[in-house]
UniProtKB/TrEMBL annotation:
SUPFAM superfamilies: Six-hairpin glycosidases (SSF48208)
Pfam families found in the cross-reference section: Bac_rhamnosid6H
Species per Swiss-Prot/TrEMBL record: Neolewinella maritima
Superkingdom of origin organism: Bacteria
Ranges for domain Alpha-L-rhamnosidase six-hairpin glycosidase: 198-522
Protein known as: Alpha-L-rhamnosidase six-hairpin glycosidase domain-containing protein
Keywords per UniProt: Signal
Keyword Coiled coil: no
Keyword Disulfide bond: no
Amino acid sequence: MFRFLAILGILCTCGPALAQLPPVFDSTAAATAHRSPMVKTYLTPTRIVWLSDTTGTYVQNPELLLVPSNGQVAVNDPKLLRLKSDSTHRAGVLLDFGKEIHGGLKLSMGIKPDKAPVKVRVRFGESAMEAMSSVGGEKNATNEHSLRDFVIEVPWLGSIEVGETGYRFVRLDLVDEGVDMPLYAVQAAFVYRDLDYLGSFESSDERLDEIWMTGAYTVHLNMQDYLWDGIKRDRLVWVGDLHPEVMTVSTVFGQNEVVPRSLDLARDQHPLPQWMNTISSYSMWWILIHQTWYNHYGDLDYLKEQETYMVDLLDQLETFIDADGKETLDGGRFLDWPTSPIPEAVHAGLQAMMVLTFEAGSELMAELDRPELVTKYAATAEHLRTHVPQDNETKQAAAMMVLADLADAEQINTDILKQDGVQNMSTFYGYYILEAMARADDHAGALDVIRNYWGGMLDLGATSFWEDFDINDSRNATPITELVSAGSDDIHGDFGEFCYVGYRHSFAHGWASGPTAWLSQYVLGITLHDGGDAVTIDPHLGDLAYARGTFPTKHGLVSVSHVRQADGTVATEVDAPNGLTVNR
């Protein structure tokens, strides 16, 4: 078990998670209000990436920006960073906080003869180049969902805190001429849930360990008041995105209230016959998430709260099946963005999802003691299996067909999933591709996909996983930590399709966290079932010499260790909490 700040690898000053409320606080209002679980920590920049002037004329003592500060201004500071401007130059600086974070920025100014506030332009960026960009232009920098480019006034002998977005880099520029600004401190105001990392993963391959942790951190960043898709954009509860995110939450943090809170929001925001987020598959993901959540935690009271909506939704879905068992869903017909222009792929994926959804519905109705619906929905799933989609060649839809038993896992793995290496992947459906490879007993191949695809993002400086990644874009690309020189590609600004063109691309997107859940489920071999009262341990080390780790359950942590022996067999040790049945 690890504390989050230790994982982040930073020193910080933290405020209390929940302050004592004053006596005048209205307790009646508090009864209906939601108290935010977020805490705030102030971080110091780790690196100066760029200065507008290196002669000491306009930017003086920049190294002081890297010295930890308490953020409290004083009248007698002997030496401060000074930003200056005249008619020909406006001082500017680009800072790196070392890791993708969520939150804002605190600027503190010291004393100066002129008491007027100073105008400063602030630009946030998930990459160094995004922080250097202006809104608009060919590379599609935006202020959508959260402001990242704006002008503020910093008060004389005071502080101001601004912004709420996902970022790692910040550029600051003076706006007016004739300014001599004594800048006391620049601090990131990091906003997060202060959680223990209960789950863990360690193996003979440090790259896989880093990928596991990066996926965990990516989802942690998005565990705000609700479970968002991204902290820069869209900052929304997209139900399809929730499925891999919930798998990661369960793997790392256990039974956290952000999951039911987000599921209930999606339900209440989309009364039937609306599809969740206007997308029919996202309503199906809602049911599949409830299946996973119940299998892990067995909260029957919570499941009963969903019964009416769930039954009505399943009955609505059933009206979109023709006599031949083919899905005919309306609304947004969507799997992920790369497959969206390919009707054969979308149909194949939706057909598979319909099968999985009605199987899940039948299973959940058994828990709700609705035997007539158990039979009905199981029969619907079988009727859907009578139609097998043809002509799909995408990895995403092929993987879903394997998971729904509409296609042979080994054949699909050979003919589609393993073709062209990690080209034609998507970060969203990456988890399901890995799961389909596991169904084909190709765990070693899946490990290589994780190393090469998600590892490819790490090679480009990622500290959280991205909304989209095309391995072909990395061939001539500069890491996100550096400014791009002539002749090199800007991995953030030069690429992207659909909703993630250029700098609009989200670099901390929870749907990309699939390897975290997959490594714990398939390499450590940990699968919870029976409402979280039982666990099956079935490890698959692939080419690893050892793997060990922990997994949170409602009974406590289960710990496993797997070591490959000289004869090729794997020796396994399991330490399980009381109340948890272990199957081997």
